[in-house]
Amino acid sequence: MASPFQQLQKILKHEAQDGYRNRIVIGGMGRFADHWYRQARAALQGGDPELLLALEAIYADLRRYEAADPEERRRLVEGLEARIQEALQRERHLRSSRSAAPAPPEPVGRPQPSPPSPHPAAPPEPPALRKPEAEPPEKPRARPAPPVSPRRAAQVESLGLEAPVHVIHGLGRERAQRLGRLGVQTIRDLLYLLPRRYVDFRALKPIHRLRVGEEVTVIGEVMDIGSRQTGNGLTVIKALITDGSGVVECTWFNQPYLLDRIKPGAFIVVSGRVDEFLGRPVFRSPEWEPADRELLHTARIVPIYPLTEGLTQRFMRSLMKRVVDYWAERVEDPLPAWIREAYGFPDLPAALRQVHFPDDWEPLEKARRRLAFDEVFYLQIGLLEARRRWRSAPGRALAFDEALLERAIEALPFTLTNAQRRALSQILEDLRSGVPMNRLLQGEVGSGKTVVAALAAYAVFLAGVQSAIMAPTEILAEQHHRNLLALAERWAAAGLPTPTIRLLTAGVTGVERAQIYAELAEGSCQLVVGTHALIQEEVAFRDLAFVVIDEQQRFGVLQRAALRGKGYNPHVLVMTATPIPRTLALTLYGDLDLSVLDEMPPGRRPVLTRWLMPEERERAYAFIRRQVAQGHQAYIICPLVEGSDKIEARAAVEEYERLQREVFPDLRLGLIHGRMKSEEKEAVMNAFARGEIQVLVATPVVEVGVDVPNATVILIEGADRFGLAQLHQFRGRVGRSTYPSYCLLLAESPSEAAIERLRAIETIYDGFQLAQKDLEMRGPGDFLGTRQSGFPELRLADLTDLRLLELAREAAERLAERDPELQAPEHRRLAEAVTRFWQGPVEPS
Ligand code: ADP
Ligand code: MG
User: Fold this and answer.
1) Residue 460 CA, ligand 1 centroid: distance in Å
2) Which tens digit of pLDDT belongs to each residue from 25-35?
3) Fewer CB within 10 A of the end CB, N or C, for the chain?
4) 529/419 same-domain check
5) Distance CA 295, CA 304 (A)
């Protein structure tokens, strides 16, 4: 068989004769380079380090060829010609010395550094290198058979990618279970278990040129290997590796089995960061593998996988390699060719191969982008579909007396902001339209969403039908109820008709509850506010036409659907204070129309926020005292306690007692926590709202929605335990009036991440900017709380990549024009993929 170097030599000769026009090989020199490299690598199994080095160098030049201009190409070919000559010399030399008797191995004291000679004629034979042929044969490796145990073949055949991972040959039940902990159940899951990051070990260097700090790969012979125990019981394995140009020391800790795997005389590839010891370069715990195999752990861009106990990087990589080699090409690409072509994406098998074992950074980036696109594309298809379904249902066109509504607005204790006006008129438009409303009202904490919802509900009442407002906590539902009653009073005073308003929470029981059920069923109650109690089966409406879901991020899709199901295609308004950039909102809530309150009621000032040191607690108390002396009120938030409500409540009781006894004996303190009865909670909140309680000690239950404008300071204990969004919500409890307001944060020993959060909340007041920061710090999945919200999990897509989101949206729209129901045969697999995506991954066991 001709040497790969001779082959290449021929091709280059023709290329030179043809004037370096890249026409000699079909598909171009770039493709050929990859092909040739793989072949040559396989042919060089013996692993002569010099030849391998030559191979790498030649390959690197070949890859540059295509992009080069003719003049550069000429120079490249000349350089290549010289390298090939060298390699051929070396091959001849190896062949001739094979027939000669093997030289006795020399002692490996201090090999002479011998830089590669520029002369093709006489490459110095490295003294310490043994001939590859003389190497003891490695254990024969299993042939690359399908990585599936034969017994299971039939099962796998029918299940395909949905086959459970334990069918993989040699994986074993225990490891399959461990993979389960990473969320991997099926072969498909495994293919989509992507590297967390990659290390570039492609830089192949002769040992004498190693520089401290660089990440490199060397190929060489093991001169010596041994182990010793350290004082504290560690086993240190130390090996000396030489490639003829120098010697480098490698150490590994606590891996005694390496003594069996790495034998003196073996050729190995070592990749890692070059360290220094007594002025000499060393590798500490480098990656390594025998030089005669396809390299997985070294000398390439090496993937780093997420791990769990009992799984090692090496195991994962080998497993992945087998799985990707066999399965990637069997994955059918759901993305229709016309989309792939329009956006220049690689096909799915190629993308999967590259994302696990990239040839280079560029194909890796393309692969990741393609896979990320898949996610947001499926997301968009689902959202557009939901929207289409929603809008095709017949909706109620409500008619109401506009003049009465206008008078109700005038009767408010304040003037609506322009943003509130705009949002309200968008909502009213929906109510009148005859198409069911599905609208998101988004606005910063304190921007006044409630009153917009209340006015819309009032219009619905004027139209003669019912509304329901659902809030995530009893406290919040009660507050809405209180506020609505106060509004109704003003409307009555202005001579306007007023609805009957009821509160329905878990705390409302017995006769009272039965009474409310009856009123809802017969229609004499036109507006009900409540918690989850509203979606109990027993609750029935006479004619529910409008549903408001406050703080929608607190509810799952099912709960929203349940409330909606209480009416016949009711109009739905969901409200949230989670500020997401508009484009992002449109993309994520593609099925919703969007109204934004981007303006605060007049006179609001930013809540001055300070992170205090623990020893400044007394100062914080003094500050609270001064605010109270000026007639204001304060919140003190107790830390989040892991464990249970009960423990948290107990801690809050203790803190409350301590504060009352030792810190504020002369002030009126109140306590509120999750374990109190509804009536107790309501009594406390009422007393606080009326100003009878001056300082309210609370567990995190008051996080959302609570509105007592006279409160001007909030002290948050254990602030490091809360997320950014939560802290921002807490802060939103104050600053609800024109008085200057303050947020004080205390944290005993914050982690690094917590410090970053505290700094952010201290300096960033704008909800949008904070959300952006939050997104960056936590990643999209956590940010959206996707699991509980029923939103599919995004593993790859970066939700800050608006460009990609827009691309996916556009593609989904184009698709909807062609084939909205995905019924064309060419979209069958796409339809399956979309369904699978929305069903979500199996929960890790
Ligand atoms: P959020 O959007 O956080 O739910 P709320 O609806 O609780 O905010 O409103 C915050 C406070 O602002 C309430 O006390 C409310 O009465 C008041 N408010 C709402 N709109 C206006 C306005 N246009 N002018 C003055 N105060 C307003
Ligand atoms: Mg609110």
Assistant:
1) 21
2) 766 788 788 87
3) N
4) yes
5) 15
